Structures are given as C-alpha cells and as structure tokens.
Amino acid sequence: MTTMDLLDEQAIRDGRSTDAYFLRTEEALDAADRDPTVVAEVTADQFPTGAFEVLAGCSDAAALFEGLPVDVDALRTGQCFDGGPVLQIEGRYRAFARYETALLGLLSQASAFATRALTATLAAPDSLVLSFGSRHLHPAIAPMLERAALVGGLDGISNVAAGEMIGKEAGGTMPHALLLCFGEGNQANGWRAFDDGVGPDVPRVALVDTFYDETVEAREAAATLGDALDSVRIDTTGSRRGDFRHIVREVRWELDAQGHEDVGIFVSGGIDREAILKLRDVVDGFGIGSYVTNADPTDFALDIVEVDGEPISKRGKLPGRKRVYRTKDGGHHVALADGGRTDGGAGADETIRSVPGNAEPLLEPLVRDGEVVREFDVDAAAERARTDAELVGFGEERD
C-alpha cells in the first residue's frame, strides 16, 4: 500500500521529528560527559514591539514534554504577546535538546493561524465568521488549524475529523458540486434535495452563484425553499466578481423586494480582512480560509539563557531567566526573573529590571517534572484572546 507523507504522533513524542544536528549535539555532549542544567526560552522578539500576536499550540507543547524530566512555564493559550519569552524550559539539556524543532513548529504555525483568526474576528465583531481553511493544508494538521481558528475567535469550523478530535462539531451546507450534479437550470432540484436530505439542525443555506446571476439564483432559492431558507451563500469566482460589494447589495435588494428580509447573506472565497471591512455592513457572515492558512509562521526561536545557574546567551539574545508581565492599562513588560518589582515602571516598549507593582505575571506552570499541570479549554482561550486584545489594542497598528 502506498503511504502518505506524514509522521505519526509517536515519532514526534520520541523526538525523531528533529533536525539532525540536535542528535549530533546529544552525541557530542554524551562523549564529553556533559549535561548541564539549563534554562531555555522561546521568543519571537527580545523586546516588546507593540505589534501583538496570539499564542496557540500550548496543548501540543504540553503533550510534547509530557513524561520528560523538565519544568515548563508558558503564557496561557490565547494570550497576546509582543516580546519576551512565551515559553520557558528548565532541565538537563540532553533531556529536551532534540525536541526544539518540533516545539517551534507546534507553536509557530498555530500562533500564526490564531493571530489571523483574531484579526478577522475583530474586523467583523457582529458577524458570523467560520473557518473554511483545512483544504489548504495537509490533512494531518487540520485539528491544529481548527483549534487555532477557534482560539482566535472564529465561530465555527468545517473539518469533520478535526472537530471530533478537539471536541467541536463541524458545520457546513452545500458545495457547487451538489448543484452541478443536477445540471444547469435544475438548481431548484438541488436545493430541494438538500432540504429533504439533511437533518433539521443543519441551517438551510443555498449556494446561489453556480450558473446564473447571483440575484436570479437568490430569488429562485427563496421561492423554492420559502420560509425554510435561512441564508444564501455567494462564493463567486474572483474573475467573475467585479464589484463584490455591489453584487451583495443587489442580492439584498432582490431578497427584500420579494419579502425575504429575514434571509441572511453569507460570503466566502478569498475573503481577507480588507474584504471583511468592506462587506461587514451588508452581509451576515463570512467563510475564511486562505487568509488564515497563508499566514507566515510566527518566527519563534529557542535560546539557552542560563547554564548551571549562570546567565548566558549567544550574541543578539538577552541572557538570564526572564518574566513577562501585563499591567492593567495593557502594558507589556519584560524583566529579569530576579529583578524585583517597584511602584513605578517604564513604558510597554522597554525592557527593565523592575516592573510596576500592579503588573501580573503571564508565565504560568505548564509541565512540572514531566506532568502536565494545566487544562486546555478552547472556549476559555478564545475569551482570553478577545479580552486581552481589547486591553492591549491588538490590531491597532493595522488601521
């Protein structure tokens, strides 16, 4: 049987999903009988930048370190960050050296997806925004995408197996393929088949751009399904869209003129933040895919900052174990772990030895001596992302 290009979970847990030079490092340290106790930190930026991102992937990181003789602290899933460590490991270096590659991958892509999802969510706070992106990724990582999308605040997911894994039911209605199976001129038969075939808990959302003008198909779908119709979806190919906002407004006009003011309009296909901002006042919901999945991975790095109790770092990195803090006004602070606290403090764009007395530490226990000590709730993470985003002004640099 031909196999797919994917690693099973055990290969990752065993540390075989690693860059080869970490195995060479293990061999060299073993030959030298050297295995120091180190503190290593995962950072994207050494200093706060004001451009916040959203941390995701913590549940996978916890699973990676489960059973290893290390202690791990991390920000909470959904926390916004713009500098300083998001995760910190303490232990004998050879106990976790080979896991660096996998750890960075688990955090980098998930955080990028969650950040894009939150950006989309905040662009349309009163609209339904759904994740349609799993077709753009290797299917093996669909659960990671869908979890990150929910952390970022999206209202639903589409991938069935991913939903089963993360405990969230996938949603969706009809593709163009359904209507193509009935042929041009027979769209009504396709809409009726859908209404007859799916369960009552599935929203009746008719795709209305397969063969004819969107306004024509929207009118016909409303006439066919009547009061059963919840929404129409427009997924028109970009080459045929023209002024998409104008098309949507025409559909709205046609539906209203026919007495279907309660039928919503849902749009999908190449939707990004700019499209959401342009359409959010004339549509009820969005399906987004490539806008999330095309996000560049967050450029995390893991660096040793302490060896056998002594601060150390390579050039361009900051030595010493650190802590990150959030003040009640949204300030983000990075300080040496033994730097103390004062009643005053520097601004959010400074790295300081002391932090304001009202600042709250953000790094919290994730793993203690190989035991996972944190629970993971995607709904709580999404709420944390929204709350923290408002506090720190997430996305304001994009406006």
Tell me about this structure.
The protein has 399 residues and is of the alpha/beta class. It folds into 2 domains: 208 residues, nicotinate phosphoribosyltransferase (Alpha-Beta Barrel), CATH 3.20.140; 170 residues, TIM Barrel, CATH 3.20.20. It is 35% helix and 19% strand. The protein contains 14 helices and 19 strands. Strands 12-11-1-5-3-18-19 form a 7-stranded antiparallel sheet. The protein has a 5-stranded parallel sheet with strand order 6-10-9-8-7. It is elongated, with a radius of gyration of 25 Å.
Short description:
This protein has 399 residues and is an alpha/beta fold. It has 14 helices and 19 strands.
CATH topology assignment of the largest domain? nicotinate phosphoribosyltransferase
The helix/strand class is alpha/beta
User: Main sheet, how many strands, which sense, barrel?
Assistant: 7 strands, antiparallel
Helicity level: 25-40%
Low-confidence stretches: 340-352
Query: Which second-level CATH architecture of the largest domain applies?
Result: Alpha-Beta Barrel
Provide the spatial order of strands within the biggest beta sheet. Answer: 12-11-1-5-3-18-19
Overall shape = elongated
Rounded to the nearest angstrom, the distance between the terminal CA atoms is 52 Å
What does the radius of gyration come to?
Answer: 25 Å
Write the layout of secondary structure elements.
Layout: H1 9-13, H2 20-31, E1 37-43, E2 53-54, H3 58-65, E3 70-74, E4 80-81, E5 85-92, H4 93-96, H5 100-123, E6 128-131, H6 142-151, H7 160-166, H8 176-182, H9 187-197, E7 205-207, H10 214-225, E8 231-234, H11 244-257, E9 264-268, H12 273-279, E10 285-288, H13 290-293, E11 301-307, E12 310-311, E13 322-326, E14 332-336, E15 341-342, E16 355-356, E17 360-361, E18 364-368, E19 371-372, H14 378-392
Parallel strand pairs: 6-10, 7-8, 8-9, 9-10, 15-16
Antiparallel strand pairs: 1-5, 1-11, 2-4, 3-5, 3-18, 11-12, 13-14, 13-17, 18-19
